[in-house]
Design goal:
This protein has 208 residues and is α/β, with parallel strands linked by helices. The protein has one domain: TIM Barrel (Alpha-Beta Barrel), CATH 3.20.20.70. The protein has seven helices and ten strands. Strands 1-2-3-4-5-6-7-8 form an eight-stranded parallel β-barrel, surrounded by four helices. Strand 3, helix 3 and strand 4 form a beta-alpha-beta unit. Helix 1 runs parallel beside helix 2 and helix 1 runs parallel beside helix 7. The protein is globular. The termini are close together.
């Protein structure tokens, strides 16, 4: 099984181009004004235009009004949407795009129930819980909390770095991994060498 890689919080064209050249499967664009990695529509449009074929552009939203999401979709070619708030399934599926639903790994969260509730999602993304930030915390959660045998693609996020991603994959065996701060030189500014290291670690980990 090949584990896919999404590099999230892309804010610069050159970082998107580097990610694609290194073999990233997807890049994430944050449309959430409170995030230090937020992009404008103009930034996002330039980034997406620079992507080669077969690299998925994912737009990340947090409890955004539907009209705001539609306004972005009218101007930016997004291939998939990622919802990091309390969006119900009917809202997530309303935009004619495959969607990913983020699950905050708070105490007592029932991932199997989330998989049932968001059965038409393309994947669930499991991220570290933080009351103050819907993602991008730079902290890991206890990977042993992820149940096995789910009939749903899982994307593992939360504090992943070149140093821990191989072990994370061995423990969780996710469909994909999602990294943001773990490959940065600064908020929203990716470090090329860290991206190289991260993707190499993902590609070389053995799941046999």
């Amino acid at each position: 099984m090949r584990v896919r890689v999404k590099l999230c919080g892309i804010t610069r064209v050159q970082d998107a181009v580097h990610a694609a050249s290194l073999g990233a499967d997807a890049i994430g664009l944050v449309f959430y004004a409170q995030s230090p990695r937020a992009v404008s529509i103009a930034q996002a449009r330039d980034i997406v235009r620079a992507l080669p074929a077969f690299v998925t552009a994912v737009g990340l939203f947090v409890n955004a009004p539907p009209d705001e999401i539609r306004a972005v979709l009218e101007q930016v070619r997004l291939d998939a949407l990622q919802f990091h708030g309390l969006e119900p399934p009917e809202q997530c599926r309303a935009f004619g795009r495959p969607y990913i639903k983020a699950v905050s790994m708070r105490a007592g969260v029932d991932i199997r129930a989330c998989a049932r509730d968001y059965a038409d999602s393309a994947a669930l993304l499991l991220d570290t819980h933080d009351e103050a930030a819907p993602g991008g915390t730079g902290r890991v959660f206890d990977w042993s909390r992820v149940p096995g045998g789910l009939d749903k693609a899982l994307i593992l996020a939360g504090g992943l770095t070149p140093d821990n991603v191989a072990e994370a994959i061995r423990q969780v065996r996710p469909y994909a991994v999602d990294v943001s701060g773990g490959v940065e030189a600064g908020k929203g500014i990716k470090d090329y060498h860290k991206m190289v290291q991260f993707i190499n670690e993902v590609n070389h980990v053995s799941l046999g």
